[in-house]
Structures are given as C-alpha cells and as structure tokens.
Specification:
With about 325 residues, the protein is α/β, with parallel strands linked by helices. The chain folds into 2 domains: about 150 residues, Medium-chain alcohol dehydrogenases, catalytic domain (Quinone Oxidoreductase, Chain A, domain 1, Alpha-Beta Complex), CATH 3.90.180; about 150 residues, 3-Layer(aba) Sandwich (Rossmann fold), CATH 3.40.50.720. The chain contains 11 helices and 15 strands. Strands 3, 4, 5, 6, 7, 14 and 15 form a 7-stranded mixed β-sheet that branches. Strand 12, helix 8 and strand 13 form a beta-alpha-beta unit. Helix 3 packs across helix 4, helix 3 packs across helix 10 and helix 9 crosses helix 10. It is globular and about 60 Å long. The two termini are about 15 Å apart. The protein binds NADP nicotinamide-adenine-dinucleotide phosphate (NAP). The site of NADP nicotinamide-adenine-dinucleotide phosphate has 28 residues, from helix 1, helix 3, helix 4 and helix 11.
C-alpha cells in the first residue's frame, strides 16, 4: 500500500510517498481502508519535530481518518467488515490503510461523506469540550473566536451558533471572516497578519472592545495565541472565560493583572487528554455532535482536497495560513 512518510525532520517538502507492507490488525484492532484524512495544524508541527509528541521515524502524518473496515483482528465485537468509521490516531492517517483499536472507531452516519467524517471529531470534539465543559456556554452569551477561518475556528463558530451563542469571528482576512459569517457568526473583525508592536496590539485591543460592546465577551475561544491573545483578553466580560486552545501565532505571555481586573478565568483546553481521562464523557460529546450534524446544525467546511500523492501540498496549504476551514487528503 501507499503511505506518506516523514523520514527526516522539516517542512512538507521533506515528505515522501512510499510503497510499504499493508499492516495486519492484531487482537482488538481493525484494518481500515482510508478514504479521507484531514490535515490538522499538529501535522505540520509533528513532521518538523516541533510538536509535544514526537513519533519514531519514519512515520506518516495524519490524525483523523474516515474509511471502511476491511479486516477484523481477533476478539473484535461490535464492528463488521464494510462498516464506515471515523478514527482518531496519534499519527499515520495519510496512508491507504491503517490499523486502529476497534474501540477507537466511531461509526459514521449513513448521510455523512468521508471528507466530513475525516474532518469532524478532532475539531468539533475540541470545540465542544472547549465551549461546553471548559466554557460552560449558555444561549445568548457572546463568543469571540480567534482564527475563526481555520479548521478549529470554523468548528467553534458553527458549534457556538448551534449552542445559542452570539458569535463574533476574528481572522486575518476578509475572506476568512466572510466564511465564518456565512456559517453563523453575527459579526467579524479582520485583524492584521502580525507580528504586532505595542501600538498594533493597542489598536487591536480597541477593535476587539468595540466589537464586544460595553459588556465585553462572555467567552473567547483562542485558536491562535501570539500577539492576538492580550488584545483579545482586554475585551473579555467581567467573569468571562478565556479558552486557550492553540498557538499557531506563538505562545503568548499574558499579564496576570488582566484576569484580576476582569474577574475572569483563563482556561486550558486539551481535548486528547480529556478524551483519555473521561472516555464516557467524550462518547456523550461525540453523540451530541452527531445529533447536531444529523439535524443539519453543524458540518465541517471542507475547502480543498488533495490526492495522497500530494499530501505535502495539503499540509503546506495549512502551514502557509492560506487554508479556510478543512483541507482533506483523499484516497480513491
Ligand atoms: N487544545 C486542543 O485540544 C487542540 C485540539 C485541536 C487543535 N488545537 C490547536 O488549535 C490550533 C488550530 O488548529 P487548526 O487545525 O484549526 O489549524 P488551522 O486550520 O491551520 O487554523 C489555524 C489558524 O491560525 C491562524 N494563524 C495565525 N498565525 C499563523 C501561522 N503563523 N501559521 C498558520 N496559521 C496561523 C490562521 O488564522 P488567521 O490567518 O485568521 O490568523 C489559521 O486559520 C493549532 O494550534 C492546534 O494545534 C488544539
């Protein structure tokens, strides 16, 4: 079978496509023929050795796949050959086939496409955990989403809207903001590409404050970090929650006088660790998300598709900050 391999650390141009032996499903595992694998920001970090988790080389990037069960390992119950499933992986999804634990597979609804399946749980699962468990979102609350045109960002926008929040989308281009508004944001803020000096951060703080109005934002979902974090935190409401999700723009250092002055919480979100520590809670979250999908209230926005041979271009599209929503690598 074909697979995309990171054999040396570096950018997407270091990836190679190789023929390797098809893996065999062991006890409790299934072999999945991958139809789609989404690109996630950690793919770019992982191949460059810049992610917290470093797989042994050579390895294939790819954290979320959707495909068809092709073989069952010993002792697998509850799944059958031919089932359509979504699977989250530590890495390895950009391959024609993957072996995954059977209990890590989520059956796909009949009406869900493979590209939607591969773009669903990593982003919407994180957004749900962020907004519901960590943010305690309630209908009518105001929610600012940073990086609102990215994979995480558009998931937070559509889910926030579905849960009754009034969403303001912030992103680095009008096209990204427009897409977020098309998916349910009430208003948008276009911020500069950065880096920002002191004056730039002040100006951005004023922009966020004017978008927030007198009361400030009840929730801020920060998928970006960097120079955007402090200006955003300045626009939070008294008692608000600032959700720390990711740092593509760099890890920010926040002045701790701000949480004091705002009486607000700065809250960490780490979906993978949550799902491991509370598997039943996570299963309930995924069920709630699939119900919202079935009701037509949420869906991934897939803007670009690449064949497996061009997986490097797919990752490059994300790391160059050009992508809107999800980019997907497809097989067959
Ligand atoms: N905490 C968790 O459990 C969890 C789970 C999933 C993902 N994440 C993290 O969430 C973040 C977003 O992931 P994603 O998959 O949604 O990524 P994505 O689709 O690439 O979106 C990231 C967004 O970050 C912004 N950005 C700012 N500076 C950037 C830069 N130098 N390079 C690239 N993008 C930049 C871009 O928006 P603008 O151009 O509009 O600024 C881009 O749309 C990542 O840091 C990821 O690791 C965390």
């Amino acid at each position: 079978m074909k697979t995309v391999l990171s054999e040396t650390a570096g950018g997407p141009e270091t990836l190679v496509v190789r023929e390797v032996d098809t893996p065999v499903a062991g006890p409790g595992q299934v072999l999945v023929a991958v139809r789609a694998c989404s690109v996630n920001y950690p793919d770019a970090l992982m191949i460059a050795d810049r992610y917290q988790f470093k797989p042994p080389r050579p390895f294939a990037p790819g954290l979320e796949v959707a495909g068809v069960v092709e073989a069952l390992g010993e002792g697998v119950a509850g799944l059958a050959v031919g089932d359509r499933v979504i699977a989250l992986l530590s890495y390895g999804g950009m391959s024609e086939k993957v072996v995954v634990p059977a209990d890590g597979c989520t059956p796909m609804p009949a009406n869900m496409s493979f590209e939607h399946g591969a773009s669903f749980i990593a982003t919407f699962g994180t957004a749900y955990h962020a907004l519901v468990q960590r943010g305690g979102v309630r209908p009518g609350q105001s929610l600012l989403v940073l990086g609102a045109g990215g994979g995480m960002g558009l998931a937070a926008v559509t889910l926030g809207k579905a849960l009754g929040a009034r969403v303001v989308a912030a992103a680095s281009s009008q096209a990204k903001v427009d897409q977020a508004i098309a998916l349910g944001a009430e208003a948008g803020v276009v911020y500069p590409g950065g880096p920002l000096d002191t004056e730039g951060r002040k100006a951005l703080g004023a922009l966020f404050k004017s978008a927030a109005g007198e009361a400030g934002f009840d929730l801020i979902c920060d998928n970006v970090g960097g120079d955007y974090a402090e200006p955003a935190l300045r626009s939070i409401a008294w008692g608000g929650r600032y959700l720390v999700v990711g740092f593509p723009a760099g890890i920010p250092a926040l002045p701790l006088n701000l949480p004091l002055l705002k009486g607000c919480d700065v809250v960490g979100v780490l979906y993978g660790a949550y799902a491991q520590r509370d598997p039943e809670g996570n299963r309930q979250n995924v069920r709630a998300l699939l119900d919202l999908y079935a009701a037509g209230k949420i869906a991934p926005h897939v803007s670009a598709r690449y064949p497996l041979e061009a997986a490097a271009d797919a990752i490059a599209e994300l790391s160059s900050r050009r992508a809107i929503g999800k980019v997907v690598v497809t097989n067959g």
